[in-house]
Design goal:
The chain is α+β, with helices and mostly antiparallel strands. It has five domains: 44 residues, no CATH class; 132 residues, Resolvase, N-terminal catalytic domain (Rossmann fold), CATH 3.40.50; 132 residues, Putative Large Serine Recombinase, Chain B, Domain 2 (Hect, E3 ligase catalytic domain fold); 48 residues; 177 residues, no CATH class. It contains 20 helices and 21 strands. The strands form six sheets. Strands 14, 15, 16, 17, 18, 19, 20 and 21 form an eight-stranded mixed beta sheet that branches. The relative contact order is 0.05. The C terminus is likely disordered.
Length: 610
Amino acid sequence: MPIIQCESCGKDVEIPAHRTTQRYCSAEACQKKRNRLWHTRMRSAARNEPALPSPDTVEVAVDRTTHAAEYVRMSTELQRYSVDNQQARIRIHAALKGLEIVKTYADEGKSGLHLHGRTALQSLLTDVINGSAEYTVVLVYDVSRWGRFQDADESAHYEFVCRQAGIRVEYCAEPFANDGSAMSSIVKSIKRVMAGEYSRELSEKVCAAQARIVSLGFKVGGRAGFGLRRYLVDDKGAVRGELPFGQQKNFQSDRVVLALGPDEEVEMVRQIYRWFTEERLLYAAITRRLISMGIPPPPGSGWTKDVVRGILTNEKYVGTYVTHRTSNRLSTGKIRNPPERWVKKEGAFPGTVGKPIFEAARDRIAEWPNRYSDDDMTIRLRRLYEKHGRLTHDLVNTSVDMPHSATYTYRFGSLKKACEAAGINPRRDRALCGIAIYARRSELVQFTTSVIHELRACGTLVKQTSEKALIAGRDAIVTFASINRRAGTGKWRFKIPPNVDLIVAIRTDRGDPEPEIFLFRPAELPSAQTCRTDIDGEIDAYRIGFAEAIYSIQHWRSLGANLYTGQPSMDTSLQSLHLHPDTLSKTCNPGEELVSDVVVHSRVVRDVAV
């Protein structure tokens, strides 16, 4: 979306493309200022008085009637000369019209199907809406370069935004003049529809061509896989040589075929099938065995459960090409096609394993109890909701005879969409959740501000790098994180940011009027990513008061191992901390600990913070 700068606070805010006159953000103070100026102008107009000068008033008038900007776009990286050709034609048009090109917007290798990803066009619209454009004309090669939007009205809307701001769009290679006449409007509308129709026809032709290539026994895209290799074949069927991983063919007339790889890889693929069908090992066990044996993984990946599952389920290991399992036509999103729409070519090349053992592996996978159908998954979800009256990820994962929540996400897109498919409307007001999160964030900001205030009052140099991170002294990086008890599990969970010296965590699940403070050193925690504990006593050992937290941040190097003993090795210097009475009244009483219900999560990287 276009970005404007608020005329009151100066912040950059995103606005919808159709709000071309918006000049203020949604902050209450900015909206009040906007209303005051509006009422003042209305009163001045009623009294026939001169209106107040607009903030956009330019003291020195600049003649921009001959200034123009050019917008160029090429669809793929193969069109290496496309931008140069467009610019050459645009320059000729500008010379004939007496225009001077002062700015160029170029989208290279970007599809014209939608605005997403086209940063140059987004920047152009932003300059136009903000009123910062130093030109009055935008030159485009033709209608298709402006966009091949499937909705012709979208292309017309962006042109209307420019025209409403006093900037006209001219198409240099079109046979009509974009002058707003009835004939030009009709021709332009037809051209927009033709541009979108070209993309639809091209998508159908490419899909049909790929199906034809697969039916002839050639491979279309994708990696070869473990135990297989790609080879180039010319138009006469002669093998040119192996096509290594990461390389592409040079000639459009060449084709790619699969062939068996090294003997040791082929034998290892057969061994994986034996482990799965005869020894009845699972994906994870096979993965661990391959890693322990030191078997080199396929190029571009490591040994994971997904890689092992692909070896056991992909029909290319029996010599069959399969494509069109999924489709993503016109960038509308990936769609899982039903098996009847797949395109197959059996016997395209010698298989790595025989069909009987491949069918045995497939039968074993089909027998697993977690092979639920979509209807079965929605029925189980509905029963769980009727039983508990609510649905959460933790409840789904901890219930017996229920698929994992990740399975619902993979099958339906998200747990919310799965609930919609099951006809369930969970009772959860997301608007109230958003208000609660905002309130908790505000409390954390207040707490962070109080910590910074006390550190500076004690003479410590403090540099705040973000809302929830700061650098105390010369090298102590401190971040404020959250700690809460995960619902339904009874476990403490909080994230551990990388390259941080101290973590000041605030308890978030109590709902008490004041927060509890916990101090951690990431190097001494059990995990580099997430800390999980089950016993309250383990977490209580890290609890400290507000004054102790300030002292620990100041002397984090000298405290060392005594930092988390529950009784920090603090001398009488702790008594000399000049804590302001206002801060103490907001945080804690003398001798008491700080308590809060803030939900906070932050990450800090040392290189960025320094």
